[in-house]
Amino acid sequence: MHIEGLYTQDLNMQAMIKKVFKIAPVSACVLLLGESGTGKELIANALHQYSLYSKGPFIAINCAAIPENLLESELFGFEKGAFTGAHQQTKGKIEQATGGTLFLDEIGDLPLSLQPKLLRFLQEKKIERIGGRQSIAVNVRVICATHQNLAEKLSKYQFREDLYYRIAELVLCLPALRQRGQDVIYIADKLLEHYQQIFKKTFKGFTSEAMVSLLDYDWPGNIRELKNKIQQAVILNDGFWITSKDLNFNAKQNAFSALNLKEARERAEREVILKAFAISHGNVSKAAEILSITRPTLYSIIQKLELNIIQENRAVEVE
Description:
Elements: H1 11-23, E1 30-33, H2 40-49, E2 58-62, H3 68-76, H4 93-96, E3 101-105, H5 115-124, E4 126-127, E5 136-137, E6 141-146, H6 150-155, H7 161-167, E7 170-173, H8 183-199, E8 205-206, H9 208-216, H10 222-236, E9 241-242, H11 244-247, H12 261-279, H13 284-291, H14 295-304, E10 307-310, E11 314-317
Parallel strand pairs: 1-6, 1-7, 2-3, 3-6, 8-9
Antiparallel strand pairs: 4-5, 10-11
């Protein structure tokens, strides 16, 4: 199973992709949760593409990007003369999505004043334009997304509980890039291939130092930030290798929180071995060489730490 534009070898992400294909044919509302830059709109597009609404339009609206006084007319449309400047009848995003999918991005920023009207639409599948008196039936698949903690907003009465349960009939959680283990190296390789083709350049790859930097960085901007950094590196670099300096950040070293020496040692071994496998692209001999140990010693440590070699010879931690 593959989603266009989504690169991963992470088991949790692959499990999430399987859920996408199970959910796609169902007409129930889907709520996508995840930090900014994790690919929520990409998943929303996939849910549309593999749904019964795929022949219809995919209409997206960012609830956080439009001022509150304009958002209602953007969503529901308006009749001619409904307010100053309403010179003609205009369909809103909901009506435009008829027969297709409506993607409400950043639903957590939807003003409290608009939430009852959206709830009514979701319950009745009907809308009224601003200034109109006629109910208009709308057949759409609704997908919502947010980076916010909706449970917290519910507790503060900033988001209606009844609306939450209506939009969260099915929920998918997208992990942050820093939670996807060695995926950052795999994605970086794919993005490097992509931008080399676009900008007509050829690189041998990332230096070992650059790969360690990729693994150590926290990636607050997630995939979007990774794309920006690699695109910039490809444009500005005239050499053969992408270095840590080209990526334009200083990797943050992860500090150990455990005071137990045995736990700290095992955590350090696990992290270093996983990095070695990422840098060596899953090659055991090269990983052992990077670590300055023999293959038997490496296998012994892998067994002790309960690491396993899986798809495409990559090392990942067994949960």
